[in-house]
Amino acid sequence: MTAVREAEALFATLTGHGPDGVWSAPGRVNLIGEHTDYNDGFVLPFAIPQRTAAAVGGRDDGRLRVTSTFADEPVEVALDDLDRLFPTAPGSRPAVPEWAAYPLGVAWALRRATGVPGHGADIAIASTVPVGAGLSSSAAIEGATSSALNELWGTGLDAVALARTGRTAENEAVGAPTGIMDQMSSMLGEPDAAIFLDCRSLEAEIVPLGMAAAGLAVLVIDTRVKHAHSTGGYRARRESCERGAAALGVPALRDVAVADLARAQELLDDETFRRVRHIVTENQRVRDTVTVLRAEGARAIGGLLVASHASMRDDFEISTPELDTAVDAALAAGALGARMTGGGFGGAAIALVPRDEVEAVTTAVRARFAEAGYAEPHVFTVSPSAGPRRDA
Fold this sequence. Notes:
The structure is a single chain. This protein is an alpha+beta fold. It contains twelve helices and twelve strands. A hairpin with a 6-residue loop joins strand 3 and strand 4. It is globular and about 60 Å long.
């Protein structure tokens, strides 16, 4: 069953009738550019076919009720209570179950951004985006919910404004200190293309990938090691970046060039320097990847993906043994490039693989995981896909 049909069925179970509509938004794979977004840097993600759907119907009692396929019970609050529930204090848990804080946080952020009071609604959520795999299941929830409420409430926001709303929900309602890459990639996705995003200006350029024409596939290797951005590791990395920027006297690490790293090493302690070095070199790798894609095509970017993974493993220290195994096994079996993707501490790796070698690479990765005693990974291909839409 598709996410749309599953959301419709869940809505009918909740309410006894059909929704006013169903909206969906995709997850994303980040081709390259990790942890650069909250440093005002550059990223190159693309939307994936896996989507989250929100079936939504209006209510006339001023209440929001949300339910999902990944929770046993619905959560119901009054619209007027949203300002009491959110924002969530930094480092604390939301006042509602975390899964519910995403759609309810979107409603709160949308009201705050527009001044439109909105009206009550039932929202049923279903998804085919793997949760905790680094494929931005959270931004898919935010994109589907914000697209639905934007239409039903008549708030009239464009895709970039809705992405900002999603980031506000994630940062202030859920309490996860993420940047805006995930929301922008979900909202701006286009088939067979990536989004070259400047996270300071929010200028976005669509970069054709030509994967199919080049005979390539992007293989996702979900290690099934779950991560959570609202907990410590991600926040600690962000704080290290902020300390580094302050010590170097710049607004954000976006403003540090590779040529500045020698000076940075003199000023910073070893750990902070390595965190800074990852961000600075990763920003350069994103720009280099765009240049290579335009000049030589997707088959030529493999080395940049490998260098990105090494930087995340050694300097930013966000990889895991399972992610390293996935990358190493894919490369040994014929992948042109591979790296972990997403915030780290678990989740998924991606591999750029000739299409006729997908099966061999998949088999090799599963065999290496079995040899290491790890749980069997979930391995599947993705293709760059479209952003949010109304499905029903």
